[in-house]
């Protein structure tokens, strides 16, 4: 007898992030008067692989998972981008994220293209053993399109250095030798780079430091709200306080948020999250929803979770002076216009969170030479890259009189288009 099959692939979310990414590109293409063929080429991924993964579960059953790897554009070098493990993953989310990786590597001017991977799963419901078998199964399928000169994955939402270690190990078995540089964000003991773990947040805080100088906004003591407490959000709390003196009054994760007008101490929040699995219910704090957190009257707002959280519905209610976009794709095009009109200074995602892929690139370079840099050297080189990208984008925004995201697109798309033209891909 046929049984009803529960849908295991979600329909596209609204707004569809890939449509958002295409719309952003379209605006830039128009301003740049981009050649039509180049524009149409850059609207789509060059290649994508859809995989189906049978994984043995702890109870002896076999569960089928679905995953993707999208290589968006490799005109400037091998494609690069993380792998997300998320229950709401869709091919269009991965396409959007792969497009943003293409603009991200171009804006920080590293010799790489853009890619992204994803598996539809809820890692919180998987045991370590199941997670390891899923990670290995993914590499067994996707490994054929990876390579030092082809495509290099890394961590993203809900994937960790341990997951990268399993993946690097599986890839080594496929090849018959270690090729550590093919996966970045690895633990230090397996060829990881010093400074990779906090690199995404650190790069964003370097950008914020520069924005503070330009806008003449005092960051020492500036009230801050952080949405998301994964790798990017939690290190933004730590480094925002350490490097520029931010006073973080609210943080959140997927279960909700906490607020304290006197400020939240990083070590207290981290210890509570480690003990309970969430930031919520930290003693001495008030509960706040993820939506309300974005509307708090703070100087700095740091979305560090998922895409499309700042939309036409709430953009007018976000009072922050500076938005530090550590998440990928947190703001929709309509929201961008509202924020620009309101005078909010947005440090756009693929500039602001490019620190992760920048140190991933440093990791690849160190793996290639099998010779490792000090943490201080990584910080210095990261600072140089982030500061240069920030100012390049800020300057273009002034010259063209456009918002920072559009300016970032102008810088990045120009670089990718130049490579496409030089390679002779379009007449
Ligand atoms: N997943 C991160 C990002 O979205 C890092 C990618 C990488 O290191 O390749 O930028």
SSE class: alpha/beta
Question: Could you tell me the number of beta strands?
Answer: 12
Residues in helix, %: 40-55%
Topology-level CATH name of the largest domain: Rossmann fold
Spatial order of the strands in the main sheet? 9-8-7-6-10-11-12
Q: What Rg, in angstroms, do the CA atoms define?
A: 21 Å
Write down the domain tally: 2
Percent strand equals 15-25%
Secondary-structure element series: HHEEEHEHEHHEHEEHEHEEHEHHHH
Which stretches are poorly predicted, pLDDT < 50 over at least 5 residues?
none
Using the 3D structure, state the CATH architecture of the largest domain.
3-Layer(aba) Sandwich
Report on the biggest sheet.
7 strands, mixed
Describe the structure.
The protein has about 425 residues and is of the alpha/beta class. It has 14 helices and twelve strands. It has a seven-stranded mixed beta sheet, with helices on both faces. It has a five-stranded mixed beta sheet with strand order 1-2-4-3-5. Helix 4 packs across helix 5 (about 160-175). The model has no long low-confidence stretch (mean pLDDT about 95).
SSE layout and pairing:
Blueprint (H helix, E strand, L loop, with lengths): L16 H16 L3 H7 L4 E10 L5 E12 L5 E8 L4 H17 L6 E7 L7 H15 L8 E5 L5 H15 L23 H17 L7 E5 L3 H14 L2 E7 L2 E4 L6 H11 L9 E3 L1 H5 L5 E4 L18 E3 L8 H10 L2 E3 L1 H4 L2 H15 L5 H26 L3 H19 L5
Parallel strand pairs: 3-4, 3-5, 6-7, 6-10, 10-11, 11-12
Antiparallel strand pairs: 1-2, 2-4, 7-8, 8-9
